[in-house]
């Protein structure tokens, strides 16, 4: 049983290191700061994002971004922009309340 405890301790340490690395190397930025790190395709999505407001319905978001890929189940609608960047939308009672844009490595932006 001694090796199980050692392995568990190593897994916990590695998990903590990964979490800290993610927080350090992927900063949470404002949209203005993040726009400086965007390529042309992401800039196009930024223009679309500026057309949304809190409280929008999924139909309105889909009208602007296009139909999200079907991820099955109750997965939140997410649009992959390229291999490193995606936008996830969060709905409550059928209305948009948060958008999270992640570019790895690069930035995380949350728009309430």
Low-confidence stretches: 20-24
Q: Nearest-angstrom radius of gyration?
A: 18 Å
Strand order of the largest sheet: 1-2-3-4
Mean pLDDT: 83
What is the string of SSEs from the N terminus onward?
Answer: HHHHEEEE
Q: How much strand?
A: 15-25%
Helix fraction, binned, reads 40-55%
Give the biggest beta sheet.
4 strands, antiparallel
**Overall geometry:** extended
Please provide the count of β strands: 4
What structural class do the secondary elements suggest?
A: alpha+beta
Q: How many alpha or pi helices?
A: 4
Separation of termini?
48 Å
Architecture overview:
By secondary structure, this protein is of the alpha+beta class. It is 42% helix and 24% strand. The chain is built from four helices and four strands. The protein has helices at residues 2-25, 31-35, 40-49, 58-65, and strands spanning 78-82, 85-92, 95-103, 107-111. A four-stranded antiparallel sheet has the order 1-2-3-4, covered by helices on one side. A hairpin with a 2-residue loop joins strand 1 (78-82) and strand 2. It is extended and about 55 Å long. The protein starts with a helix and ends with a strand. The model is unreliable at 20-24 (pLDDT under 50).
């Amino acid at each position: 049983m001694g090796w199980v405890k050692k392995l568990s301790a190593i897994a916990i340490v590695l998990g903590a290191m990964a979490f800290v690395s993610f927080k350090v190397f992927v900063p949470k930025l404002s949209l203005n700061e993040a726009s400086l790190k965007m390529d042309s395709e992401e800039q196009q999505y930024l223009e679309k994002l500026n057309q949304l407001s809190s409280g929008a319905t999924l139909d309105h978001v889909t009208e602007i971004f296009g139909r999200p890929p079907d991820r099955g189940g109750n997965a939140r609608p997410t649009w992959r922009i390229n291999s490193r960047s995606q936008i996830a939308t969060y709905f409550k009672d059928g209305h948009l309340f948060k958008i999270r844009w992640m570019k790895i490595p690069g930035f995380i932006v949350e728009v309430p």
